[in-house]
Design goal:
- Helix content is 44%, strand content 13%.
- By secondary structure, it is of the alpha/beta class.
- It has 2 domains: 2-197, Rossmann fold, CATH 3.40.50; 233-436, NAD(P)-binding Rossmann-like Domain (Rossmann fold, 3-Layer(aba) Sandwich), CATH 3.40.50.720.
- The strands form 3 sheets. Strands 3-2-1-4-5-6 form a 6-stranded parallel beta sheet, sandwiched between helices. It has a 6-stranded parallel beta sheet with strand order 11-10-9-12-13-14.
- Bound molecules: uridine-5'-diphosphate-xylopyranose (UDX).
- Uridine-5'-diphosphate-xylopyranose binds next to helix 9.
C-alpha cells in the first residue's frame, strides 16, 4: 500500500520505518529539514533501539523516503498524522497547532476515498472536529491512537498489544476500518485485537491508558511515602501485591516517578479537557497523582541533602542518568535531570552521566557538568545518585568497585534498582525511596 506519514518525531519516524518494514511504500513528511536529511540517509535523529536497522533497510530498498514537501503525500491511500501535541504554554491543555497545521497542509492533496489516520494524542472531541474538514475532500478520517513505549517503539509498532480504530458511523467507517486492517495485516493475521469504535472512545482509550499507568506508578509511590513513615519496604510490598494477578507487578516500580514526553502532559491535558466538559470532578484524582509524582523528586533531593549531613553545598554529587527512563535519550520532563538541576541549585558540584542522553541534557541544562564515562563521573564524588536505571548503573556497578573511585560512601537509589544489602555490606550508607 502507499502510505504517507506526516510528522517524523518519535512517533512518526518509527511509524514510517515500521510501515516500510512490513512491506508498504512509505513517504515520511516533516517541516524540519535537518530531521528529513538525517532520516533520508537512514540515520535516526534520536536513540531508539532497532530504528537505525529498519531505516537503512527501508531507504535502501526504495520503499521508504522522506521529504519536507507535503505534496509528496498525494497518491497515498492512507495518511498517518503523527505530529506532536505538547502542553500549551501557560496552561495544562494540549496545543493542537501542529495537528491543525498538518491537516490544513494535507487537505489540498487528498483524493476521494483516501484515509486520514490520526495517531497523535489529542483531547477527546478533536477527531469529530477534524472529520468535517477531511470529509469535504471525499476522504475519511480514522482515529488510530498509538501506544508505543520509547525504547520499545519499533516492536510496539510492528507487533502491538492491540489496535484501535475510531471511525465514523456507516459504510465509509466500515471501509476505513477494513483499509486499516490491510495496513496492519501482519499484526491482524497474528490475532492482535482490533477494536473498531467511535472517535470519542478511540481518543479516550489513549488518554485513559496513560492516566491508568500514571496512577499505578503514583499509587506505589504513595505507598513509598507511607513506608517511609513506618519503616516498611515498598519494593517488597510491590512484589507481594504484584503476585495478585488482578494487580500485577508491572508499573509498580517505585522511585523518583514518571516523566517523559507523554505521561505528564497527557494526564494534565486530560484533566484540562475534563474541566471543559464539566466533568473535572471525575478525574480530579489525576491532580493528586501528579502531585505525588512531583513530591518524589523533592524526596530524592532531601535524601541526598540528609545523606551529606544537611547540606550539599560545595560537595561533588555524581548523578547517574539523565534520560527520563533507560533505553531512551529523551530528557523531556525527565525526573532524573530535574533532580540533578535541583541539587545544582543547592550549590552542589553536580556531574551527570548517561549512556545516551548527554547531548540532549546539555542543550536543556548547560549549567550542569556532563561526563560520558561512568567511572570518571564517580571519581572523588561525595555522593552517588542513581536516577535512571540503565543496566550499567543498576546491574553492572559493583559497590566494591565504586568504593575505589569515590571520596564519600553515600548512595541514593532514586529507582530502587540497587541491592541495598550489598551496598551496605561494602560500607555504604544506602538510601532508597520508601525503603528502610
Ligand atoms: C508511555 C506509555 O507507556 C505508552 O503506552 C504511551 O504510548 C506513551 O507514554 P513512555 O513515555 O515511553 O510510554 O514511557 P513509560 O515506559 O510508560 O515510562 C514513563 C515513565 O514512568 C518513565 O519516567 C519511567 O521511568 C516511569 N516509570 C515506569 C516508573 O517510575 N515506574 C514504573 O514502574 C514504570
Amino acid at each position: 500500500m502507499r502510505v504517507s506519514v506526516i510528522g517524523c518525531g518519535y512517533l512518526g519516524a518509527v511509524h514510517a520505518a515500521a510501515m516500510a518494514s512490513i512491506g508498504h511504500e512509505v513517504v515520511g513528511i516533516d517541516v524540519d529539514q535537518r530531521k528529513i536529511d538525517a532520516l533520508s540517509k537512514g540515520e535516526a535523529p534520536f536513540f531508539e533501539p532497532g530504528l537505525p536497522e529498519i531505516l537503512t533497510e527501508g531507504t535502501q530498498s526504495g520503499r521508504l523516503s522522506f521529504t519536507t514537501d507535503i505534496s509528496a503525500a498525494a497518491g497515498a491511500a492512507v495518511h498517518f498524522i503523527g505530529v506532536g501535541t505538547p502542553q500549551q504554554a501557560g496552561g495544562y491543555a494540549a496545543d493542537l497547532t501542529y495537528v491543525n497545521a498538518a491537516i490544513d497542509s494535507l487537505l489540498p492533496h487528498l483524493r476521494e476515498g483516501d484515509i486520514v489516520a490520526g495517531k497523535s494524542t489529542v483531547p477527546v472531541g478533536t477527531a469529530a472536529e477534524l472529520a468535517t474538514r477531511v470529509s469535504e475532500t471525499g476522504a475519511t478520517l480514522v482515529w488510530n491512537p498509538e501506544f508505543l513505549r520509547e525504547g520499545w517503539a519499533v516492536q510496539d509498532t510492528i507487533d502491538p498489544d492491540r489496535l484501535v480504530a475510531g471511525v465514523p458511523e456507516g459504510p465509509d467507517g466500515e471501509r476505513a476500518a477494513d483499509i486499516l486492517r490491510e495496513v496492519y495485516a501482519p499484526a491482524v493475521a497474528k490475532g492482535t485485537p482490533f477494536i473498531v469504535t467511535d472517535y470519542a472512545t478511540a481518543e479516550l482509550v489513549k488518554v485513559s491508558a496513560n492516566a491508568f499507568l500514571a496512577t499505578k506508578i503514583s499509587f506505589i509511590n504513595a505507598m513509598a511515602e507511607i513506608a517511609e513513615a513506618t519503616g516498611a519496604d515498598v519494593t517488597e510490598l510491590a512484589d507481594a501485591i504484584g503476585y495478585d494477578a488482578r494487580i500485577g507487578r508491572k508499573f509498580l516500580g517505585s522511585g523518583i516517578g514518571f516523566g517523559g514526553g507523554c505521561l505528564p502532559k497527557d494526564i494534565r491535558a486530560f484533566a484540562a479537557r475534563a474541566e471543559e466538559l464539566g466533568r473535572g470532578e471525575s478525574i480530579k484524582f489525576l491532580h493528586e497523582m501528579d502531585a505525588i509524582n512531583m513530591r518524589r523528586r523533592d524526596r530524592a533531593v532531601e535524601l541526598v541533602v540528609n545523606g551529606l549531613g544537611g547540606s550539599v553545598f560545595g560537595k561533588k554529587v555524581a548523578v547517574l542518568g539523565a534520560a527520563f527512563k533507560p533505553h531512551s535519550d529523551d530528557v523531556r520532563d525527565s525526573p532524573a535531570l530535574d533532580v540533578a538541576v535541583r541539587l545544582n541549585g543547592l550549590g552542589a558540584n553536580v556531574v551527570v552521566t548517561d549512556p545516551q542522553a548527554i547531548d540532549n541534557a546539555r542543550r536543556l541544562h548547560p549549567q550542569l557538568t556532563y561526563v560520558a564515562d561512568r567511572d570518571e563521573t564517580l571519581r572523588d564524588a561525595d555522593a552517588v545518585v542513581l536516577v535512571t536505571e540503565w543496566d550499567e548503573y543498576r546491574r553492572e556497578m559493583a559497590p566494591e568497585h565504586v568504593s575505589t573511585l569515590t571520596h564519600g560512601r553515600v548512595v541514593v537509589d532514586g529507582r530502587n534498582g540497587l541491592d541495598a544489602a550489598a551496598w551496605r555490606a561494602a560500607g555504604w550508607s544506602y538510601y532508597g525511596m520508601g525503603r528502610p
